[in-house]
Amino acid sequence: MNAARWFSLAVLLGGLAGCGNGNDVSDLDAYMNEVRLRPPGKIEPVPTFRSYESFTYNAASLRSPFSPQVRVGLAGRKPGARNVKPDPNRVRQYLEGFNIEQFEMVGTISNASGAFALLRGAGGVHRLKVGDYLGRNDGRIVAISDSQVDVVEIVPDGEGAWLERPRTIPLKEHS
């Protein structure tokens, strides 16, 4: 026999030797007698649990409390235009489901079909062209340069009209 079998046999015999005297079951007999003396039919009721009340977060479409507020002075404030408004019938693009603050420009690509901006955010790097939409406020890309992407958003002015708000996404270097 090889050494591994001798070792296995020694462990098995050592384990069996630990079982000791197999006739001493007095503690088990005492417990069984105690159980037999209990009155029959006494089963504890199942505990009642409160049902889980779900919570629906309704503020996902609002401005993030960590981004700076847009401050517009009341004296120099332009009223919103009635002819500027988002198109409710337009098919939404994927990147319109995310806040525009989370996107950062990481580069550009140019080919025969035009210039494209590379924006990181929403779980990846996305290639966008002029006319594409991103952000929750109907943000449309109006210009792409080597150093920035210019976006125009349509936001409510609080008085029933809409304003066009320009935004710039600068190139993030060393990304």
From TrEMBL:
It holds the Pfam family PilP. InterPro entries: PilP. This is Pilus assembly protein PilP. It comes from Pseudomonas frederiksbergensis.
